[in-house]
Amino acid sequence: MAFGVLVVGLLTACAAQPAQQVNPAGTQVTLHLDKSGNPAISSDEEQVLSAVRMIQDGKIMAAIDGPLNAVISKFETQYAHSDVKVYSARGTTDALIYAALVTSVAPGQKVEVLGPAWAMAYWARGYAYGEMARYDDERLELEKALALAPMDAQYSNELAYVYVQKRDWQNALEYYEKAGEFADFNPTNAQSMKCTSFRGQGYVLVELHRLDEAEAKYRACLKITPNEPKSLGEIGYIEDLRKKPH
């Protein structure tokens, strides 16, 4: 079955009511949606957001030991012995795509598409670890977030940046490229995520001495956000590098 057809089928099936089970190709898919058709907001998400505010206020360990561990423990306990494939979606678009991806490769697989809280909790705990310069722990948390939300541009961009800090240019470039590909799945911040992806790719390509490709990436960001200062500054830096003797 074509991917687009499957997504349309899921959209049609979900149009009548906000939260239900659909069963394409014999696969049970449960979408947890609110009345507007978006992934349901829960108290868990509010806890994660409160934890982010705590981290920004410098209460890093309190955020980890309190709301973040509580939310993560809840979901990990709930699904520890489950054979259900779980995804964590920000919006209707990625929720339906996650459902469609699984049904296309694993007929009969039970799937649950939750709201964003679980993946956000891993991301936020990674953010906390990053603030403490625990970059390997940050990477592990972002990988957990991406396991639940594999097409989330923000998580891909941030994992790419972790690899930049480790000077692992190939992995950094790979995740920045993925972020650019996935940005449109969350229309609310697609342009911002694309620009972050292009700037990240540009930075890595400069480090790899691929200056023409790097400049093209920065110019791609400028097409989205004209006069974006970081891209303009990096293009100036590339021009200076070209003037230096090799």
Automatic annotation (TrEMBL):
Highest taxon above the source species: Bacteria
InterPro entries according to UniProt: TPR-like_helical_dom_sf (IPR011990), TPR_rpt (IPR019734)
Matching Pfam families: TPR_8
UniProt keyword annotations, A-Z: TPR repeat
Signal peptide: none
Positions of TPR repeats: 119-152
Name the record gives this protein: Uncharacterized protein
Organism name: Dyella jiangningensis
